[in-house]
Structure formats: structure tokens, C-alpha cells
Amino acid sequence: MATKAPGKAQRPRRAEARRRRGGLLFFEPSCRSQPSSTSYGAPGFDVVVVIAGLEGAGPVEGAHGIRVQAEAALDAVRSASFDLIVLPGGEPGNTNLAASAALGSMLKSQAHAGRLLAAICAAPRAVAAHGLLDDRAATSFPGVEAEVRSGGAVYSQARVVRDGNIITSRGPGTALEFALTLVDALQGPAPAQALREDTLA
After folding, report:
1. Is 106 in a helix, a strand, or coil?
2. What percent of the chain has pLDDT over 70?
């Protein structure tokens, strides 16, 4: 279960009239936590995901040789509005995410609007690099802890941490808990609990 930071956190806006919510997932080479499809539906939960790449649409090969098809380039989606943006970890892709000024601008707009922003494994380092973890509770893969701390984060070793509209997690072994936390954040506890029961989580 995700650890929630108390107090000041800004809560994500919810669009009451909509059932389908859009998510944007960025992939760069050597990302480790990879999805099997671009959409998912379950009772009470329905989400459409756009997989984007910094360098354009096309296949992206992960650290373990698994290929994911990026459907869009950053330039094609940077002006769109998403309920959730997710950054996966891995290197050197994570370094590229941290270095991208265009992505940083998009993440800042997302966070400042109160919409959800999530990162797992090494990716919280990229969120910190873009100045979005200052005085926010966060976690990450242990190997980037120092950089997340230096970005101003109130560091936690919890498996998943939610501080308002920013959600972070530690690595591949926490990916299911991370995913269930995202479902909860997007559509509430009932769909998340249904998926938890279906997956024996």
C-alpha cells in the first residue's frame, strides 16, 4: 500500500463526467518496467495509454531486449492534456529523460495543474532533475537515492509513496503495487481493490 505524505499536498483534479482517462507513458532505451499493451479495461476501470518516445515513434528496446512500440514522439504530444504521465526507469533512458528540457516543461505543466505524475525505479531522479520533488515525499531505486535527495525530496524507503499528485516507487519488484496505486489515483479505491483481488496482490 502506498505511503501518503500528510498536509500540503495538492490533490489531482477529477473529471466527474468522464469514464475514460488518458495516460502518457514515456519510454527511452533500457527502461525496465514495461507494459504489455496500450490499453487496459476491467470492471469499473478503463484507461487508454499513449506510449511516447523522446526521439520519435517506433520501436524502443529495453534493458532486457524487450521491445516496446512508441506510438508518438514528445513533440506530437507535448501540448496535449493527460490525466497521468508515467516515467519508467532504467539507463541510459532515464538520463535522457532528466536532460530533456522539452519533457521538463511538460512535466512542470502537468504537476502545476494538479494532474498526476508518476515515476518508478530510477525515474524519480528525472523528476527531481526537473525541480518537481522539492520538499515532496518520494522514493526511488536505491542507486539514485542521493540524486533524488539532492533534488530536495523528503526521501522515504517505502515501496510506493504518494505526495499529492506525485507518485513514486522503487523498482521492478514494486511495480504491481505502483500500478495499483495509479489505478486508485485515477479512478478510486473500488477498481483498485477489484484488480488487487483479481491478481492476488
Report:
1. helix
2. 78
